[in-house]
Design goal:
Belongs to the DNA polymerase type-Y family. This protein has 15 helices and 14 strands. The protein is of the alpha+beta class. The strands form 4 sheets. A 5-stranded mixed sheet has the order 5-6-1-7-8. A 4-stranded antiparallel sheet has the order 9-12-10-11. Strands 3-2-4 form a 3-stranded mixed sheet.
Length: about 425
């Protein structure tokens, strides 16, 4: 049986985990410091009482008792001066690309795990200095060039790097070696071990395993009996052991979905169709970004009583077309939902994804001549929205044969689609 020391990387791997601090709020503070910097802020979908949930909040707000997941009206009772900011995902993606580019300049071995965090394997980056010097350089450049704070963990593997980046926030740099695990991690409750959620931690407590140290010393067979193959992983993780490499290419998504909590309950078919139209547009756009086609579709419906229903079916042919997705979603809703019943949340999930180059696209016998022009129009619209934001272009009459394009952004009015290498409509 292997000892813990046998898992220590013989090649001396050095992994960084870069974690942006209160990312969404920090981006707004960087964009408009006179309005938001140093003030209690929170990003939420809405400031209205029922539907608003805090997505993230600034550290100034956290000191006052505000936390992620809190309902907006509750947060405002705690802190009446809390500034609620509407999310701007185009802006967040722009800043995400910028900070990732800074990190990438120190190593091509970068794995982005979300919009605000990434792993870096800097084992081969000695020309930039020691691991601490590289971490300081990345943190300093992100602060200077983007005015954003970040925390960085330095460790021999991804697990410990992730745990390290959480140790000092905001703007901290932490080193977590394998030999530090008994002193630093073992006294902590199991729920603080990355990868263990509240439900799993509660089950561990029932087994009288409360700390990471107790988990590290638990019988592996006992853990396997209660948690299956995850039991072995939990024991290794509690000992600070992880063999997961930094993956520069993420595995393709098995599904793409989007849900939206509505400002107020809706039950009118025209309101539902308008919402499904918007969601269809968003998921289709994400599908095209990944150069995938969807072979199946699922809709999600949640009632005011918080009961959730899903209905799905396979499509006749794989598609990336928002028009097709919208029609199928509306048909699923019509078949499976009584119009009089109010709805609190709606969502669409695209399933059975296949790479576009591997799938045969079915052309309509009567519309095949229009297909190239339609694809060119969609590409042009996607390019405009990539450059100027999601609200720059809206489609009117998406279901018609000749959808019109509404230019929303004042910067775009009078702008030719030929500019900046955007595809032409014809």
């Amino acid at each position: 049986m292997k000892k813990v020391s046998d898992y220590y990387p013989a090649d001396g791997r050095v992994i960084l985990h870069v974690d942006m601090n209160a990312f969404y709020c920090s981006v707004h503070a960087a964009e408009e410091p006179h309005k938001y910097k140093g003030r209690p802020t929170a990003v939420a979908g809405s400031s209205e009482l029922r539907k608003g949930v805090i997505v993230t909040c600034s550290y100034e707000a956290r000191k006052l008792g505000i936390s992620t997941g809190m309902v907006v009206n509750q947060a405002l009772r705690i802190c009446p001066s809390l500034i609620i900011i509407q999310p701007n995902f185009h802006l967040y993606r722009q800043y995400s690309r910028d900070f990732m580019q800074i990190a990438y300049s120190y190593t091509p071995m970068l794995e982005a795990t979300s919009i605000d965090e990434c792993y870096l394997d800097i084992t081969g980056s000695k020309q930039f200095g020691t691991p601490v010097e590289i971490a300081e350089a990345i943190q300093g450049r992100i602060a200077e060039e983007l005015s954003l704070p970040c925390s960085i963990g330095i460790a021999p593997n991804k697990l410990l790097a992730k745990m390290g980046s959480d140790m000092k926030k905001p703007n901290g740099i932490s080193i977590l070696r394998l030999r530090d695990v008994p002193k630093v991690l073992w006294p902590l409750p199991c729920a603080q071990l990355f990868g263990i959620g509240r439900k799993t931690a509660a089950k561990l407590v029932q087994l009288n395993i409360r700390t990471i140290g107790q988990l590290a010393q638990a019988e592996e067979q006992l853990l396997i009996e209660h948690f299956g193959v995850n039991g072995s992983w939990m024991k290794l993780a509690a000992n600070g052991i992880s063999q997961s490499p930094v993956r520069t290419e993420r595995e393709p998504n098995k599904s793409i979905g989007h849900t939206t909590t509505l400002p107020q309950d809706v039950n009118k078919p025209e309101d539902v169709r308008r919402i499904l139209l918007n969601i269809s547009d968003q998921v289709a756009r994400r599908l095209r970004r990944q150069n995938m086609l969807a072979g199946g579709l699922q809709i999600t419906i949640r009632t005011p009583e918080m009961r959730t229903f899903t209905r799905s079916h396979m499509l006749n042919h794989p598609t990336e077309d928002a028009e097709v997705i919208y029609k199928e979603a509306c048909e699923l809703y019509r078949r499976h939902w009584t119009q009089e019943k109010p709805v609190r949340l709606l969502g669409i999930t695209l399933q059975q994804l296949v790479p576009k180059e591997e799938a045969a696209v079915q052309l309509d016998l009567f519309d095949y001549e229009k297909q190239p022009k339609k694809e060119s129009l969609i590409k042009a619209m996607d390019a405009l929205r990539d450059k100027f934001g999601e609200n720059a272009v809206l489609t009117a009459g998406m279901l018609g044969d000749d959808p019109s394009v509404l230019i929303r952004n004042s910067k775009l009015r009078g702008t030719s689609l030929q500019k900046d290498n955007l595809p032409a409509l014809d």
